[in-house]
Design goal:
single chain, 2 helices
Length: 113
């Protein structure tokens, strides 16, 4: 990653709901409006093109799902495992992976902001 960015890329705040719904078949149930075949999922997939975004060198994900007295920054492990903070969903949704290799320098910079 460059130490001095030469160009700012767009920033997106993406709220979500329904746990792993975009990886499930809704089949007319309560998750149908946000399942793997929904317009909601397709609209998220269009965001990079709509923002005319280049592929970034890094992605910083900020989660407020857990409350605590200290800030936790992941960036030293080979790959950070997903935290499944939902329950009652199909087994395959607990096997999802996001294999993005952490970057210690990005984590450190984010922490110091």
């Amino acid at each position: 990653m460059n130490k001095t960015p030469t160009k700012r890329l767009p920033v997106a705040f993406i709220s979500h709901g329904g746990g792993p719904s975009f990886f499930m078949e809704g089949k007319g149930g309560p998750f149908a409006p946000i399942d793997m075949h929904s317009e909601s999922k397709r609209s998220l997939e269009r965001i990079p093109k709509q923002l005319h975004a280049e592929r970034p060198d890094a992605v910083v994900i900020i989660s407020a799902h857990y409350e605590g007295d200290e800030v936790l920054i992941s960036g030293k492990q080979e790959y950070t495992k997903l935290l499944y903070d939902y329950y009652g969903f199909p087994q395959h949704t607990y096997e999802l992976e996001y294999l993005a290799k952490p970057d210690y320098n990005v984590a450190k910079t984010s922490y110091n902001m």
